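Table S2 (continued). Query chain:
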Amino acid sequence: MAFRQKQYYEQVYFVTEQIPIGRVSTYGAIADYLALGSARMVGYALSQSNANNMTVPAHRVVNRKGELSGRHHFKPPSAMQELLEEEGVKVVDDKVVEFKELYWHPEALDE
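Corresponding output:
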């Protein structure tokens, strides 16, 4: 992995680790906060954390609609929902219920 890519992944992982238990953020919010790359690149970085059995809480990152679009990178795919529900986040039809209320933006790190 190229050095620059590794640095980017580490930044994505750091921000993701700051998402409070029971809250969710989005791929786009993380990408915007880092001012590097795109939502898709954040998703790819997080899929790599799952593939490498890292402890990054990637289950707390959803798409801009609150959907569990990254669930296919979990084994089994239902694990993303199960992890969220263990933290008190209700999920129905692969979508976070009360998404707007549970949404956490990385700008909170700057406060």
